[in-house]
Amino acid sequence: MQPLKLQPIPYQGSKRQLAPRICKLFPSAVETLYEPFSGSAAVTLYAASHNLARRFVIGDVLPELVQLWRLIIEHPDITAARYRLVWNEQFTADGGHFNIVRAKYNTERDPILLLYLVARCVKNAVRFNRHGAFTQSVDKRRTGVHPDKLERTIRTVSSLLKGRTTLYCGDFKDCIGAAQPTDLVYMDPPYQGTTYGRDKRYAAQLDRDRLIDGLKDLNQRRVSFVLSYDGKTGDKVYADPLPSDLDIDHLEIHAGRSSQATLAGREEDTVESLYVSKHLLKNWKKLPDFSQPAKIQQVLFA
């Protein structure tokens, strides 16, 4: 199964390319798939397009992102039309159009403006300051996703998720609080090494101990989960491994050449970590081997 091309919210760091391999770990029947750190919700979109779950819960702590998902799912025509207006304005406004939109978003928190900023900013790399303001600058090499393409994507995503998706804004533990053993939780939280500092990649920080407590709670409730966390690029490791007493299996996925390292003139591969819960492990006699290079895996797991 190939990666899903649909990506209405083009976040850098999206798991779109890895979604086919991540979803290989899913059991044959999932009642509800929870994605409490949704971002671009790449795993949810892949699972929905391949009928891997009956229902979905998309959650995030950023209210404007959750509102944007609601607009995409429930009002695709309005969402596409409003994005088109903002996108077209860049060709008639002064050169500071992006900065004007960014300032307006930081004041009004309009989710459509957030969509434009994500689509137009440098490398789709979202950055927020400690006050929660969007800080990333404009990518002068391109104009962002064309409205025609985005409209087709939004319509398709709406048809996939409408009527079987619940949206949640708030803490991840509350989002997954109703999960049952027949459900599955996929988590892609902020990495320990990328969530702190003056300009963060995420709107909110996540305490490592709180994440561990959440995983222990899922284990106690016999809820299966897959967690994308830590990893490394070259010699740089993003976080310490999670404790072994969580009864989880640690897999490594070779995600291919790091675009950040390539821009800096280095040839380094990115290796993503996956942690699989003990309740999910019982479905496997032998887990898939993700250790081979990314190009080989794309063939093996197609």
SSE inventory with pairings:
Blueprint: H1 19-23, E1 32-35, H2 42-49, E2 55-60, H3 63-74, H4 76-89, H5 97-108, H6 111-120, H7 147-161, E3 165-169, H8 172-175, E4 184-187, H9 208-220, E5 224-233, E6 236-237, E7 248-257, H10 259-263, E8 269-277, H11 278-281, H12 294-300
Parallel strand pairs: 1-2, 1-4, 2-3, 4-5
Antiparallel strand pairs: 5-6, 5-8, 7-8
Compact summary:
By secondary structure, this protein is of the alpha/beta class. It has twelve helices and eight strands.
Element-by-element helix/strand order: HEHEHHHHHEHEHEEEHEHH
* Main sheet attributes: strand count, strand direction, barrel closure: 8 strands, mixed
Mean pLDDT: 84
Query: For the CA atoms, what is the radius of gyration?
Result: 19 Å
Taking the alpha carbons of the first and last residues, their distance comes to 4 Å
- List segments where confidence is low: pLDDT < 50 over at least 5 consecutive residues: 193-201, 261-265, 294-302
Beta percentage is 15-25%
The proportion of residues forming helix, as a percent range, comes to 25-40%
